[in-house]
């Protein structure tokens, strides 16, 4: 178990993985051979990128169409004060490349939409949803299920967080738990809702944990379980959920592609 | 009882079940937990909860009075429509009910 193409520097860098029976050189080689797409380089995306880069995920795709704002810096820890006004994908790339030269970074300064999602998802082994809106979340769920690509979901609200992992092909998927997003106008606007700065660190770390587990085959992913976390009283719980035979993307009569669906902020309507 | 808890069990000694509310539902109710005295079913407990909280009712029920698709109704952590008899699911002393919506922040 000493071969598997890790060079001397890598055996040193990843020694705390390599010496674990559960990971070992084989698991580390799997990480170095993996490609993970991280959608959103914000509060959740920052810790996801940090830990996946440190773990030596060989190729990281980063998709985000925003520029860094000063109000992001309270929680989006891959961006620095001098990055205000720069594309988030650029400062995220620099952070990753400075941390670990083993990681190849592909940046996509674009909004992930129906036209772009399939090419992005198809090119990766695992997708991490670190987005900040329901339209992107439902689009990613649907595209990943249809592409048989696993999805590590995470979302936050003030002091509360949610995380689950959709297996390749779904059954169950995010829609099996939440068939539709809230009606438009019924939930507070994301940009105006406060969030405890450290909260996305906790939930993003859970998402990164799940991605590493999927790549290495370690442990039990959050399949059919929504992990819930409340930073205010420091409590965690989970809500089990089942595959829904009527689910439009992973049920008995699924849609063919995301082109047949409409995704708008806090609303999805079948065309 | 803390300031974030509201107790609607008006008669001492009757069985009490608690609603736990998540995310925006918590704000609409102005409480994280709400105690309900002596309901027989989940539906009865929901009626009592929503009767006292107009803003919560507007979020949780649609125009037909049905629970909206994005809010899960849980009894002891399990969806009552998947694992139980829906709103007819019986409840008793010590059961924890919850309304669980998705969140989208990142």
Task: Explain what you see.
The complex is a heterodimer of chains A (271) and B (106). Chain A has 271 residues and is of the alpha/beta class. Helices cover 31% and strands 20% of the residues of chain A. Chain A is built from nine helices and ten strands. Chain A has an eight-stranded mixed β-sheet, sandwiched between helices. In chain A, strands 9-10 form a two-stranded antiparallel sheet. In chain A, α4 runs parallel beside α9. The longest helix of chain A is centred in the last third of the chain and has 18 residues, at 199-216. The longest helix of chain B has 10 residues, at 42-51. Chain B is α/β, with parallel strands linked by helices. In chain B, β4 and β5 form a beta hairpin. Chain B has four helices and six strands. Chain B has helices at residues 23-29, 42-51, 54-60, 80-83; strands at residues 5-7, 16-21, 33-37, 72-75, 78-79, 96-100. A six-stranded mixed β-sheet of chain B has the order 1-3-2-6-4-5. The A-B interface holds A 40, 42-45, 130-134, 137, 154-158, 160-162, 177-183, 186-188, 190, 193, 195, 200, 226, 228, 237-242, 266 and B 22-24, 27, 58-59, 68-70, 72, 74, 77-79, 82, 100-106.
Notable traits:
heterodimer, A: 271 residues, alpha/beta, eight-stranded mixed sheet, 9 helices, 31% helix, disordered C terminus, B: 106 residues, six-stranded mixed sheet, 4 helices, 6 strands, globular
List the helices and strands and how they pair.
The complex is a heterodimer of chains A (271) and B (106).
Chain A: H1 8-13, H2 15-18, H3 24-32, E1 35-39, H4 45-55, E2 59-63, H5 88-99, E3 104-108, H6 117-122, E4 126-129, H7 134-146, E5 151-157, E6 160-166, H8 174-177, H9 199-216, E7 225-230, E8 235-240, E9 261-264, E10 267-270
Parallel strand pairs in A: 1-2, 1-4, 2-3, 4-5
Antiparallel strand pairs in A: 5-6, 6-7, 7-8, 9-10
Helix pairs in contact in A: 4-5, 4-9
Chain B: E1 5-7, E2 16-21, H1 23-29, E3 33-37, H2 42-51, H3 54-60, E4 72-75, E5 78-79, H4 80-83, E6 96-100
Parallel strand pairs in B: 1-3, 2-6
Antiparallel strand pairs in B: 2-3, 4-5, 4-6
Helix pairs in contact in B: 1-3
């Amino acid at each position: 178990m000493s071969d598997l193409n890790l060079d001397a520097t890598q055996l040193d860098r990843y020694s705390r993985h390599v010496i674990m029976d559960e990971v070992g050189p084989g698991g580390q080689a799997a990480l170095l051979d993996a490609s993970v797409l991280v959608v959103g380089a914000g509060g959740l995306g920052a810790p996801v990128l940090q830990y996946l880069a440190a773990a030596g995920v060989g190729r990281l795709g980063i998709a985000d169409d925003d520029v860094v704002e000063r109000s992001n810096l309270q929680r989006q820890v891959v961006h620095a004060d001098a990055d205000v006004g720069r594309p988030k994908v650029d400062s995220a790339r620099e952070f990753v490349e400075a941390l670990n030269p083993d990681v190849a970074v592909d940046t996509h300064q674009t909004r992930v939409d129906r036209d772009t999602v399939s090419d992005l998802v198809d090119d990766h082994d695992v997708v991490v949803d670190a987005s900040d809106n329901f339209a992107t979340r439902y689009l990613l769920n649907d595209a990943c299920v249809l592409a048989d690509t696993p999805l590590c979901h995470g979302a936050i609200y003030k002091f509360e967080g949610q995380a689950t992992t959709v297996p390749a092909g779904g059954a169950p998927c995010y829609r099996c738990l939440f068939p539709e997003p809230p009606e438009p106008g019924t939930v507070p606007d994301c940009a105006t809702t406060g969030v405890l700065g450290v909260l996305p660190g906790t939930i993003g770390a859970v998402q990164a944990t799940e991605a590493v587990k999927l790549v290495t085959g370690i442990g039990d992913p959050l399949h059919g379980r929504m992990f819930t976390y409340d930073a205010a009283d420091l409590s965690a719980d989970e809500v089990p959920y089942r595959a829904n035979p009527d689910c439009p993307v992973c049920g008995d009569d699924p849609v063919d592609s995301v082109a047949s669906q409409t995704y708008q902020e806090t609303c999805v309507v079948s065309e | 009882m803390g300031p974030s808890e509201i107790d609607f069990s008006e008669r001492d000694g009757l069985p009490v079940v608690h609603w736990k509310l998540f995310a925006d539902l918590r704000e609409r109710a102005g409480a994280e937990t709400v105690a309900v005295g002596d309901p027989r079913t989940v539906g009865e407990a929901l009626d009592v909860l929503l009767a006292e909280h107009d803003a919560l009712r507007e979020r949780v029920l649609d125009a037909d009075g049905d629970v909206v698709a994005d809010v899960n109704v849980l009894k002891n952590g399990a969806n009552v429509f998947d694992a139980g008899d829906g709103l007819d699911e019986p409840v008793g002393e010590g059961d924890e009910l919850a309304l669980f919506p998705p969140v989208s922040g990142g």
